[in-house]
Specification:
The chain is of the alpha/beta class. It is about 40% helix and about 25% strand. The chain starts with a strand and ends in a 6-residue tail after the last helix. One of its GO terms (molecular function) is GTP binding.
Length: about 190
Amino acid sequence: MSDLKIAVVGGGGVGKSALTVQFVHSKFLADYEPTIEDSFRRQVKIDEKVWMLHILDTAGQEEFSIVNDTHLRKGDGFLLIYSIIDFASFSEIPKIRSKILMIKEETSNVPIVIVGNKSDLEKQRKVHLSEAQDLAKSFQTPFFETSAKTRYNVDEIFFSIARMIRNQKFPEFSDSKNIKKKKKKRCLIL
């Protein structure tokens, strides 16, 4: 079993901990308590192979940015979380992405998924879906809207980033390799 390290990053109060706890423990954290850092582990099966996900729930507060830098170096992939009801948290996403690329000393080849959380609060929406889709497209990055409260797309974001990391870190298990292997095994009877 191989390890995949995922860092959950974003501003304070966007639901990083709620998404992580919902994924790992299948429960919703209704009360907000600022996180300094938490780490979680969950074993998952992705495309017939078992992986251990190490998930780091990072602090959203600026005073803990030194802690974040250390963990950003160790992360294999990143979930960049903003709240759809907080435009300022969305505005931070390009800055966070730039910081990750600088710390990882990469120009673009870092597994990243952009996530708009709190989709259950549609009536309070401040970030239009098209704005987020355009940003993700400009970064050539997958995008999801989620709700930690209703569990909407929670598994999908973690599995999406895990597949991206796996494909980069373990290319022998990538989706394209599996497709090629499956094609080779086909039999045609005439």
